[in-house]
Amino acid sequence: DVQRSFIRELMKKAQILPLYMKLIFDIILTWHSYDPIDANLKKLNSVDDCIRYLFNYLKTVHNSLLFTRAVCYMTACRNGISQNELEDVLSLDDDVLKSVFQHYIPPIRRIPGILWTRIRNDLEEYITEKEADDSSVVYWYHRRFIEVVNSEYLSKMSSAERTTVFQNMVDMYKETWKGKNKPFKVDDPKLVNKYNLNESDGEIQANRFTTSQPIEFVDASGNIQFNKRKLNELPQFINQLTANFAIPIA
Question: Where is each NWD1/2-like winged helix-turn-helix domain found (predicted)?
Fold first, then answer.
């Protein structure tokens, strides 16, 4: 009865739009009959409110930094991002890897693919798979999700954090660490002692096993094809870093 009354009251004051109704319905589907009404639910008066509520919930279900960076990388790309690209850039993101591997150092310094799969499954109602630049990519199906990610996450990043995010995208497309060991710093004293890293001051080199991003390649028919993903996405991330920062893309 309490839940039913809450829904009736919400419908009276809310901005009733199809996407709003969809988001509210998805939230209601997670309820049990014995669940109390979350106080934050009473503040959901718009589509953006619902999206923020959804994101905050998913940050508690998944690793908070992993979820935030994943949606930021996807949103920062003009036309979406492929699964390989997202797993590669997350594997280059030392902040994400530190938050995922808090209690041990994995033998392979790469994000487990299952982590993004779980996030994608929870977002499947709000993202779409499409063809872009001759590749299969995922992206938001509605503009409001893009706007919320931009306003809640990308625009609120510190200068250092934005540099990290865009540099990771540049490194991924430029193959900066392709076949090479990328250094990372272990900050946790327990891990430093556990893995005998005192002499190196906690620094380790590790291959991230990123996929190749050539400018051109030969397809199955023997024809030369250009890497449109790299050619269309890389320049914007270079520009985001600094207007005076010149990096060759070949």
Answer: 65-157
Model pTM?
Answer: 0.90
pLDDT tens for each residue of 132-170? 998 999 999 999 999 999 999 999 999 999 999 999 999
Beta partners for residue 224, in sequence order? 218
> Stretch 86-91: mean pLDDT, rounded?
98
Are 84 and 20 found together in one domain? Answer: no
Amino acid at 110: R
φ, ψ dihedrals at 126, nearest 5°: -120, -5
User: H helices within the chain, ranges in order?
Assistant: 2-13, 18-28, 47-61, 64-76, 83-92, 94-100, 113-122, 143-152, 159-174, 189-194, 228-241
CA Rg value for the chain:
21
* Residue 205 tokens, joined: 């080199």
Domain housing 8:
2-44
Backbone angles phi, psi at 182, to 5 degrees: -100, 130
Closest by CA position to 91, among listed 68, 116, 71, 72: 116
Same domain, 67 and 18: no
